[in-house]
Amino acid sequence: MCPDVEILSSFYDDELEDSQKKVIKTHVDSCPHCQKKMAELGLISSAINAEEEPDFKMAQVNTWNKIMNIIDQEDQKLPKVNFWQRRFQISFPAAAALVAAFIVVLSLSVVSFYMGKHTTSSPATPELNMTDASDALLGDDNIFDNSAIEFDIPAINTFIHAGEPLLIKEVDFMNRNGNK
Amino acid sequence: MDDKTKKDYFEKLYNEIFPVVIKVSYHVTKDMDAAQDVCQDAFIKLYHRVDTFQSVEDAKYWLIRVVKNLSFNYLEHEKVKNRAFDKIKHKPSFSDDTGEKELLKKDAVEKVNQALDQLPENLKAPLVLREFGGMNYKEIGAALGISESNVKIRIFRAREALGKLLPVGEVYVP
Question: In chain B, what are the domain boundaries?
Fold first, then answer.
């Protein structure tokens, strides 16, 4: 069975391993079909290489002279700069990633700052647990003598059931009933 | 690396790599002036970062990649500009022998160039590096940043495509 043309192409380029090369060579030597394929591969290469090439040696010398001129001019133009004065180039994707990261960090900072400020500065909400609040205010070993605590209850019937007055009301209530 | 050492090392690299890259660039651009300009630009880029490469091979493969890209960019630019006269102006010269043989040879070269121009860059680049750069699959893979097996497939496909574009018997081979 004939090898794939892809293998023949590698064989033509001498890119097969020795063991495989031997097998293919033995086959090609005895197979007219593969010999024809090999001839086609050779034909394409020969046609590619049929073109007469220009004088590359001369080009090598000329280009070297031009390069050296440019490098010498650059060396004269550019003063030596230290590390901190160097200009750095950054690719567009890297720059975009940096900007995106900066925006995310900045947004998070602003949000967290705003939320923190809102939480600490907001007044007591109606859902405030009054027992806990009064406990926190008085504590187990509070220095206040129950009898010594005096609060003036506002002389109105409508008491504001929110915020600080509620605290005062509860403290007063506990005091009058002898509860802690 | 001081300036003297840098220049000496650069010269060594230049002498080793230039013969390969000029051929590659010329056979992509089909323009000797353009090929020289491409190589000049690439080597100046190399000079500025010559001390960053760990080996001559690294520098070589990097430079081949740069030359290949610059050459194809040039070709694309020229196609866009549609300046066919440039190609005619820089057509390769032939030896003095005239006659039928010479005409056939000229015709073959033209057909081959036309066929090569029709290949996509991913097939043309490995084939040019193989045929004109004389590089093996491993070197081509390193230069183009692809695997050896990929190089093998691309070269085969390039030849297959050329075989269809240049039927046997229609092209004169010296």
Answer: 1-93, 95-174
CATH number of B95-174: 1.10.10.10
ipTM over 0.90: no
Q: Report how far Cα B72 is from the mean position of its chain's Cα atoms.
A: 9
> Please, which pLDDT band fits residue A55 given cuts at 50, 70 and 90?
confident
A146 touches chain B (CB under 8 A): no
| CATH class, range B1-93 | mainly alpha
Quick one: closest CA in A to B25, which residue? A56
User: In this complex, which of A47, A60, A63 lies closest to B173 when CB atoms are compared?
Assistant: A47
Residues of A in contact with B172 (CB under 8 A): 50
Query: What was the pLDDT predicted at A43?
Result: 72
Nearest-Cα distance to chain A for B81, in Å, is 25
Share of chain A above pLDDT 90, in %: 26
B22 in reach of chain A (CB within 8 A): yes
